[in-house]
């Protein structure tokens, strides 16, 4: 009988003590995780946009060089000094 009473008391106290291990507001860790996720997504987007801008810049230079070659091939001189 005494053992049953002691065991019951220990169980009740253990149950009451268990929620103390949880944060007082469980939303905070979820909010922090979402903030980190959004920050990572923004960084990925910035890297992607920089890569795309570099790619477009390189493509534009390649196209303009290609057009210069075509103009020269058709007899147009693109040098500003020669056009004077």
Molecular structure report:
- This protein has about 80 residues and is mainly alpha-helical.
- The protein contains 2 helices and no strands.
- It has one domain (about 25-84).
- It is about 75% helix and about 0% strand.
- The chain is rod-shaped, with a radius of gyration of 35 Å.
Quick structural gist:
By secondary structure, this protein is an all-alpha fold.
Index terms:
84 residues, single chain
Let me know the average pLDDT.
71
Q: Provide the number of structural domains.
A: 1
Largest sheet: none
Give the count of helical stretches: 2
The helix content, as a percent range, equals over 70%
List unreliable stretches of 5+ residues.
Answer: none
Q: Strand percentage, roughly?
A: under 5%
Radius of gyration: 35 Å
What's the layout of helices and strands?
Blueprint: H1 2-17, H2 27-73
């Amino acid at each position: 009988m005494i053992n049953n009473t002691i065991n019951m008391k220990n169980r009740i106290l253990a149950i009451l003590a268990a929620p103390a291990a949880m944060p007082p507001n469980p939303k905070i860790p979820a909010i922090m995780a979402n903030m980190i996720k959004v920050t990572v997504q923004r960084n990925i987007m910035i890297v992607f946009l920089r890569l795309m801008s570099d790619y477009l810049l390189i493509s534009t230079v390649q196209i303009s060089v290609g057009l210069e070659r075509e103009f020269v091939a058709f007899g147009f001189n693109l040098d500003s000094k020669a056009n004077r």
